[in-house]
Amino acid sequence: MPASPIAPASPLESGDARLLFIRHGSAMRMTEDLRDPGLTARGRDEAAATASQLAVALAGMNPHLLASPLARTQETAAIIGAAIGCRAVPAPAFAEVPWTDGQPVVSRAADITDWLGRGWGDMPAAQQRWAGDVVAAARQLTGLVVVVSHFVPINVMVGHARGSDRVLEFRPRPASVTVITRNGGDFAIESLGSEDETLFA
């Protein structure tokens, strides 16, 4: 299911931002031979449903479209871009939380599940720096921007907007839309995307 309906945008002042963070659609299972999987048929349907919603909500607004360079986000962004009339620009800062050195696929899910139970102050230093870079990259964005990203980066932005140290703030459903604004100051949450229990999609 796509996110809840997106509220119409108010006009933005110069330097302000309205950022629509979209989690990618459901992806194929990750394996050692396929560490960068693309979307499943269900994931393409999820992306198409959200794209249709965005085409209506953003009609005539000329948004920018950014996407994590991973296959599942690029495929989601291609579907969305076709609907809203723009091509996605790769944005490595909004890729999923980085792998640890030598981390095998078999432990990736367990490691992320463990991290989601922590605060950022208890995370490995590399992941803490990465989270800071996510926020820093978002600070550089102005205007209306659609960002196709992943579970953890979206949580980074929501946690930052809330002033929270928790790694897990909510569980965005695949292809859901979370809207975060910046109006002359720091970030604020306009609306959270719909949720489910899908950590790995």
From TrEMBL:
Q: Which SUPFAM superfamilies match?
A: Phosphoglycerate mutase-like
Gene3D superfamilies with a match to the protein in the record: Phosphoglycerate mutase-like (3.40.50.1240)
Q: Which residues form the signal peptide?
A: none
InterPro entries, A to Z: His_Pase_superF_clade-1, His_PPase_superfam, PGM_Phosphatase
Coiled coil where?
Answer: none
Per its UniProt entry, which superkingdom is the organism in?
Answer: Bacteria
What's the protein called, per UniProt?
Histidine phosphatase family protein
